[in-house]
Amino acid sequence: MAHARSHIGIDLGGTHVRCARVDAQGRILAAERRQTSQAGPEAVMRQMADLVGRLREPGTRGVGIGVPGAIDAATGTVLNIPALAGWGHVPLAEAVSRASGLPCLLENDAKAAALGEWRAGAGRGCDNLAYVTVGTGIGGGMIVDGRLIRGIGGLAGEVGHTHVTDSSEPCACGRYGCWQAVASGTALAGRARAAVAAEPSSRIAVLAGGEAVTAFHVAQAAREGDERALALLADFARLLGMGFANVQHCYSPSRIIMGGGMSALFDLLQADMASALRAGLLAGFPPAEILAAELGDDAGLVGAAMIAAEIE
Question: Is the domain of 167 the same as that of 215?
């Protein structure tokens, strides 16, 4: 009896290791998660092997892993993961393959999510798209002429470090003016905290209730019509749109798909992002359509499984 073909996708995060069995159409058939062990790479690799063992079936053909950091895809080596200690030059693909008996490939997590949205989400049927994840930072993955592009060292798509301003707080990379330094969820929260410090009785402060102000307090206040919150989001959307213009100039997508935690605010940001994209785009070129991601947190899982399908 023939068994339905499937692949395993793993999304390695600083908080959780998520694992799913995915069919050829990008549908998640089964999924589990574990809290990411802080005991080092060996412990995390054991977690991955256990999850693969629990989810695999006779038709499972391979494993793909989305990694939140720098990798050498050719050798299956993790070069660095900023959110996890000890992950320098770790042969992750080899270890998981040896433990599971299945072939294994690695990909950057944002590129894996781009592939997931392309195959099974908001990018279906589009051969030129940009996936931009906006959360603590900004990352991305680019589909150009029907192909996920990686470039030398896998650097293609690291759009969070494109330059959009001559003044900003320092980026996590140590430079100034990076897109993610001004247009990430972290940046929005920082501006909101400054606004609350200047106006302690503001609606944002009331909603925060003495806790650290986050982007979602801003969104909540904006949905109530608070003018300060609406102004913060309008500026945030403008900065996102400026970066989207850079993305379109570099990769020429017809769709820009916004994922990550800040995509929960998409309805509040959409109009101003689109306006800023149009204003920043070279005259004569139609602006890309900006869409919210459809797969949410599952995009990376689905995409990692699709990466595994490349083995065949």
Answer: yes
Domain that holds residue 13: 6-115+298-309
Position 142: which residue type? M
- Are 18 and 131 members of one domain? no
- Read off the pLDDT of residues 46-89 as tens digits, 9 standing for 90 and up: 999 999 999 999 999 999 999 999 999 999 999 999 889 999 99
Nearest to residue 16, comparing CAs of 37, 43, 35, 41? 35
In a domain? residue 189: yes
Which residues have a Cβ under 8 Å from the Cβ of 82 and sit 6 or more positions away?
68, 69, 172
Within the chain, strands assigned E span 6-12, 16-23, 28-35, 60-67, 70-72, 77-80, 104-108, 129-134, 138-144, 147-148, 255-259, 289-292
How many domains does one find in the chain?
2
Cα(150)–Cα(148) distance, rounded to whole angstroms? Answer: 7
The DSSP annotation for 115-134 comes to: HHHHHHSTTTT-SSEEEEEE
Examine residue 1 and state whether it is found in any structural domain, yes or no.
Answer: no
**CATH number of the CATH domain containing 89:** 3.30.420.40
Give, for 242, the enclosing helix (H) or strand (E): helix 227-251
